[in-house]
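pls design
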């Protein structure tokens, strides 16, 4: 399948590009210059902000929601229990987590083939937090031009006040992010007062501090550098693109030759005068969070946030030209060819995704809400009881993975006349319980050094919940 060409065009402070290779001022490593992102309103920015707020609210509020007296989502590492709403998962079920991660990866591949880097522009945490930090910067330091002016000023009372306020706001958000993240691993209602009173564990302080520092640095200082230089997805997503992938693109046929012109010229007059529709206002560059000029063609730095579309549409509206000079389109469409939505690669990813989601749903739905381990006491092979029977001791760990409390019937089979000293075990919903049980057999029957036996647990009020474990019974060694 044809790949669409992409360019690596490293941005300068306002989005123009470094000179071509070989020119005197080109360098292998260009110095990073600050990007002053201009705020823009428009349809896609509304969509993006809506998605960003929804994701942030979910992230910040979820750990505070309790179900049945415990956090709705709680990865309880010390007890090796992972509570996700009503379900509790155990390390033995990590295969489900692997499946989920594979599904997420295929979901990302599918979305990328279909719509490019929309994940980056609309939902990636790096973008979401960076946009939030830029939004705060705009509220405190003012719009782009005022921010550029402020940065050029030497330190004065106004600059000190605004910079201090901005960094305090950033630090508070970074702290809330760190505490919330750790709140998924330790109940946040306990964690926050513990942190405030210095009662929290050293590990809690370490991880809160870790995420606090990295949120502040990544969203406040590094920003687009993370997307351009650190994110592995940015590097390999290009190979998933084809000529039918939705991309943000500038319509060069319509826009060129670009140039400034009198606003009062009508669209037809502009065409007659030999102008393209681009008035070379640079607005699309000023709003770009990665500082690139989309008019230079598809670039891997583009996170498909569509800020340049909204910016250019607003310019087209003001000029009285049709919208869409920069738009979501495909390479085929730009070249006047038909766009194929249904194409082999997309269908392949879709089928793989559908099969995996179906299998995952079946595995979760069919999951036995009970787990138990049976381990034979290793310190002694067997014991002789006062009435001449042979007994073996087993340590059972029973995990009730159901939403209901259960009492389980315990039975043993595999040899005639086997008996067990404990016939039932009660375990509360989502809890686990350890029990020591003794299995006894007649030495005439257990006449070999080792016998295969079967321990069975069955919920008394729901016969469909039952589980068996093979184990060994050490018999008469004489
Ligand atoms: S915003 Fe539109 S008109 Fe202005 S420079 Fe960009 S492409 Fe040209
Ligand atoms: S070029 Fe446009 S879509 Fe791409 S990152 Fe910049 S503003 Fe967003």
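designed seq:
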């Amino acid at each position: 399948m044809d790949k669409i060409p992409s360019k690596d065009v490293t941005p300068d402070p306002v989005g123009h590009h470094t000179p071509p290779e070989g020119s005197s001022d080109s360098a292998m490593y260009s110095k990073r210059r600050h990007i002053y992102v201009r705020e823009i309103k428009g349809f896609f920015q509304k969509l993006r902000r809506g998605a960003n707020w929804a994701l942030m609210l979910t992230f910040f509020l979820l750990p505070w929601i309790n179900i049945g007296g415990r956090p709705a989502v709680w990865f309880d590492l010390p007890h090796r229990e992972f509570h996700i709403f009503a379900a509790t998962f155990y390390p033995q079920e990590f295969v489900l987590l692997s499946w989920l991660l594979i599904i997420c990866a295929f979901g990302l591949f599918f979305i990328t083939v279909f719509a490019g880097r929309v994940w980056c522009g609309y939902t990636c945490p790096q973008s979401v937090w960076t946009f939030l930090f830029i939004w705060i910067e705009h509220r405190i330091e003012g719009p782009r031009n005022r921010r550029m002016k402020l940065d050029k000023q030497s330190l004065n009372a106004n600059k000190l006040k605004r910079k201090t306020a901005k960094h305090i706001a950033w630090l508070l958000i970074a702290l809330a992010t760190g505490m919330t993240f750790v709140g998924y691993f330790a109940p946040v209602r306990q964690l926050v007062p513990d942190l405030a009173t210095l009662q929290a564990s050293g590990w809690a302080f370490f991880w809160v501090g870790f995420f606090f520092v990295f949120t502040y640095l990544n969203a406040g200082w590094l920003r687009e550098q993370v997307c351009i230089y650190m994110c592995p997805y940015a590097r390999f997503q290009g190979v998933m693109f084809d000529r039918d992938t939705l991309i943000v693109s500038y319509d060069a046929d319509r826009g060129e030759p670009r140039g400034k012109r009198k606003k009062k010229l009508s669209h037809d007059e502009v065409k007659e005068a030999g102008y393209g529709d681009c008035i070379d206002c640079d607005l699309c560059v000023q709003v770009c969070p990665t500082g690139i000029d989309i008019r230079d063609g598809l670039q891997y730095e583009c996170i498909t946030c569509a800020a340049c579309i909204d910016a250019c549409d607003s310019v087209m509206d003001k000029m009285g030209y049709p919208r869409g000079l920069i738009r979501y389109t495909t390479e085929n469409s730009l070249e006047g060819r038909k766009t194929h939505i249904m194409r082999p690669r997309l269908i392949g990813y879709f089928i793989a995704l559908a099969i995996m989601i179906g299998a995952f749903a079946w595995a979760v739905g069919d999951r036995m809400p009970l787990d138990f381990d049976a381990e034979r006491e290793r310190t002694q092979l067997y014991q002789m009881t006062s009435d001449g029977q042979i007994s073996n001791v087993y340590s059972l760990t029973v995990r009730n993975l159901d939403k209901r409390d259960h009492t389980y019937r315990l039975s043993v089979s595999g040899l005639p006349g086997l008996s067990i000293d404990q016939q039932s075990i009660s375990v509360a919903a989502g809890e686990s319980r350890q029990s020591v049980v003794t299995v006894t057999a007649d030495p005439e029957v257990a006449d070999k050094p080792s016998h295969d036996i079967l321990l069975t647990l069955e919920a008394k009020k729901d016969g469909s919940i039952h589980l068996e474990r093979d184990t060994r019974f050490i018999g008469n060694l004489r």
